[in-house]
# Entry
Amino acid sequence: MADLFENNQDIQEIDIEESVKSSYLDYSMSVIIGRALPDARDGLKPVHRRILYAMNELGLTSRAAYKKSARIVGDVIGKYHPHGDSAVYEALVRMAQPFSMRLPLVDGQGNFGSIDGDSPAAMRYTEARMTSLAEELLRDIDKDTVDFVPNYDDTLTEPDVLPTRVPNLLLNGSSGIAVGMATNIPPHRLDELVDALLVILDNPQAELAEVMEVLQGPDFPTGGTIFGKQGILNSYKTGRGRIKVRAKTHIEKLKSREVIVIDELPYQVNKARLIEQIAQLVKEKQIEGISEIRDESDREGIRVVIELKKDVMSEIVLNNLFKSTQMEVTFGIILLAIINKEPKVFTLLELLHLFLNHRRTIVIRRTIYELEKAKARAHILEGLLKALDNIDEVIATIKASEDTPTARVNLVEKFDLTEIQANAILDMKLQRLTGLEREKLENEYKELMERIAYLQSILRSEEKLNEIIKEELIEVKEKFSTPRLTEIIEDYNEIDIEDLIPNEPMVVTITHRGYIKRVPLKQYEKQKRGGKGKTAITTYEDDFIEDFFISNTHDTLMFVTDRGQLYWLKVYKIPEAGRTAKGKAVVNLLQLEPDEKIMAIIPTTDFSEDKSLAFFTKNGIVKRTNLAEFSNIRSKGVRAITLDDDDELVTAKIVKPKTKWLFIITKKGMCIRFPVNDVREMGRSARGVTGIRFKYESDCVVGAETIRSEEQELLTVSERGIGKRTEASEYREQSRGGKGVIAMKLTPKTGDVVGVVTVEANKDLMVLTSSGKMIRVDMESIRKAGRNTSGVMIVRLEKGDKVISIAKCPKEEEEEEIEEI
# Structure
């Protein structure tokens, strides 16, 4: 065996690493150039080009009879494309699908698949021919406009590129994955592409902004809506970009519910799979509020009906669908194509210029071809006319010749003709000797000379060349003009989680031991004054509800702690629970320090600079800080107020631009009203200034409010459920730091003051007791009373129970009230 190798002189040593590299590179380039990527000029991959060329050779124009797809595929794989028949048929099918191509290149007859992902019928059942647009891709191919190269077995030739009049790469787009690279070019509207090319023809130095005035962006065959122009701009400028495409929908209102109807889908989204995806998410309760999904699509177009449950907000469900399903997709644009046998990522302007250069080449080559043909015919006509001028001598010469070759030689020598002219004279019929025929020849010669002059002028003038390109582009535009299908919206705001959550009023409660929860306000029915209320929460024996307030789901809650730190949390992030559930420990929602206690919770809808946050402490200190300073809170919170050792925060209020006074009330029934400007805005870490001085040693601040006018009413409530409404004007204005005036006449029957709220026509009063009961009362049912009075019974308390907190909530609508009754 060793001898066999020693005697064999053909054995060569090869580095396997270099061999693998070389082989893989050859394979890569073969895939890149020969299969996966489109040509930048005609926008076709080799398989598509070969299909169209084979159909052209079979005479399958838009006016011809259909032929079996199997016949076309057989010609393609037998003559030009040595690959699998299924791959060729798939490419043929895609070119016939109106939901895949912006303007299809194949006119199919039979089942060519659907947007639901249904497979096309077998190629033996379907028939096809070219569309009239495809003919524009092949126009003038027989006029030496493009180079032809040998086919795979060197028995035939095929075009290297098609002489297209249509900017097909951008018109129908292209997608493909090669080795180490991919292309994803979106389709566009033909009208806009032609207009963009005309802009460049008129001004070759045109900038992208000028082109984008007429070329808005991609236009998908399935319609939909593109959100945000920035992604389009990036892709056109750099060759790469991302755009968001959404389904187009509308809302239909039924008697008691709403219906979402999907009219258009994002490009390349499978409708059947989308419906399955939505159904699965509804089943898994990831999307709520949907009762039924129906596909009512027909020949007229797509119609997917999503029925909603009663009282469900369609906007919330729709945003959930966009967020969780393929009703919104990201289309990654990569403008990669082949030029000069090399792959390259192009900008939009480069692709448009490339197409125009291709058209110039085609028109020049076509003109040269037609010019040579015209010159050849003119040359023959010159010989024929010369023969007619000397017809008797010509006939005599021919008659005197022994045979045709001799006659040809004699004619050439005697009449100074070329061999081609002599052959034409010998082939001339006797009918050409009539006067009418002679006139026809003279007219034809004259027209030919004019045609030659025109063709030569094209080759000499770039202006004329551009004019022809322009005329042909306008002709294509007029013939294949279509309206825009995809809507483009300037801005895109990514769907935030807030968009998926209904913005509805919630009752947020927090217990002494730090359990917080939110309950939909509609779970609490309105009761008459003096009612016993409903249990709002189940607490431990040593726990009780310490605070509660009404806020919308999208609002922000600002938590101020005993250490003067401020945290914030969106209401929807608080777990929703039933009326009797105890909720979740707030320490699990906020990053509080050990033993840090929340003292005040302030809801707000925004952090506007024309608002401020007023802090009120137990010892009568008041401080005001601009609300904008709390707009970006770190997870560990920020310093809101510096407190004295023996002081703690009682409450904090939003001060709006129309606020005129601050109002502070104490446990022993004293109060003070002073101008808001008496407290200037301070930094976050400031201590504040004195708001009220106490008349009694055991007194402390229990509540505070902001007042807009003296007509505004203040509702004061005591521990034993006694309350009254009093106008702000009865509490005379004082300077900040005074001892105030009597706010409520206190007796053992009333107990100490619990708090104060401003009366609003569209608000009800919510009263919370230490046993966890909550009652809702119409503020207008509470009697007005003077400053130095006690008031009326608001809630009847059981023995040992007392009011611990009060708050305002929105009035229920009459319809809801009737339903509850």
About this structure: The domain at 503-820 is CATH 2.120.10.90 (Neuraminidase). Residues 813-821 have pLDDT under 50 and may be disordered. The two ends are 105 Å apart (CA to CA).
